[in-house]
Amino acid sequence: SIEDDLSKTLFQTFKVKRVEDVALSMLNKSNKDVLIRLVTTLSGALSRSQVMLKDAAIKVDNFKTQQIKQQQALLDANQELLSIKNEQMTVVKDTVATEMKSWSE
Asked: pTM of this prediction?
């Protein structure tokens, strides 16, 4: 993993486990080869992180698209239900009006 690669390089180079633990004085004491190895590891980690972040962004967009489609389907179903209820209310209203008319005659 990215974190394991970075931790391994940091530990081998500076005997620390986190980037935050690397002090400027450590970097100043390092030779060119050590700094090249560190920069190479960091750039590789950055590159792999970027790929993972892009993949995650695509998945988030896909989930959002699916959610929007599901919400639209729910809205459509609710609209259809309201339409059916309106039709039923009209039938009931007409039936009551007819019955009231025939009862009053």
From this structure: 0.57
